[in-house]
# Entry
Amino acid sequence: MNSVFSPFVKSLFVALLAVSATASADDKKPAQPAAPKIDPAKGATLYTDGDAARGLPACVSCHGAGGNSTITVNPKLAGQHEGYIYKQLVNFTTADRNQPVMTTYAKMLTDEEKHNVAAWLVTQSAKPGAAKNKDTIELGKKIYRGGIAEKNVPACASCHGASGAGIPVQYPRLSGQHQDYTVAQLGLFKAGTRKSVEMATIAKRMSDEEMKAVADYVAGLK
# Structure
């Protein structure tokens, strides 16, 4: 009887040892950090009031009530994609994007606070903008919808959407954005100050006139 069952018993013993070894290895793995609990209400408080104890000013002072900036060099953030805002706040703390004011404040925010502020801003309604230069509206429209073939500049709409709604995380919402801010960012991409291989390549192929025209057209998108 022993000669019949010993191979089976031996196999079972080896299998049990393997399971035990796997379990031991799993026990030694470092615990994964828990995903942050996102709280838009806390984001609203931080955006509106800041945190005086840490010397962190309220975001509203630069980006306006509900994320609708009235200062044209500061972006409107209302309705912007949550993942995109979070990513930019992280980028301000790295070499990907350096801006004296925002880099300072972004480094003061915890990862959870970055998520909270982004989660609140996406719930806010963006106020519409308007194109202002009737002489360049057609040029801006042409670039946004069809690109500039002779310069190998793709249509902005191919990434940011026909209405400027963008794609979460990857491409920001552009509709209604301030002309001055959009032109400034295109300039930073062109100079390589703001890091993005894709946008730097495109911006370097555009003239200042073309940048201003498309920025004005974008401001009027809804």
